[in-house]
Design goal:
Length: about 110
């Protein structure tokens, strides 16, 4: 049987190695940006589920198609108010989780 020369590494180990441990500035920034990118993806997925174009969604929200595209591709540049208007226009329910010192706050 051949010797396996490859070592299995977990995602957390890779992130620790390349970005630092959880709680460090670089790691926290990366994870924050990742969550914002996922928010943009959620908007895109919801829009596609409703079978509407970016232009149609923009009309519902009161913004240009380019703004919807920008939000879907990188929600970091969008204001929270605009993001909430987008979800509201699609009739989507949005939930927030707030965690402080590893303790979840009930809102």
């Amino acid at each position: 049987m051949a010797n396996n020369k490859f070592k299995t590494t977990s995602l957390d180990q890779m992130l620790d190695k390349h970005l630092g441990r959880a709680g460090t500035y670089k790691r926290d920034k990366f994870e924050s940006e990742l969550r914002l990118d996922l928010l943009g993806q959620a908007i895109k997925q919801a829009r596609q589920e409703l079978n509407i174009t970016q232009e149609q969604l923009g009309e519902l929200v009161g913004v240009q198609k380019a703004q919807i595209s920008k939000i879907e591709n990188s929600a970091k540049s969008a204001r929270l108010e605009t993001i909430m208007k987008v979800f509201d226009a699609m009739g989507a329910k949005v939930n927030f989780n707030v965690e402080i010192n590893k303790k979840r706050l009930v809102l």
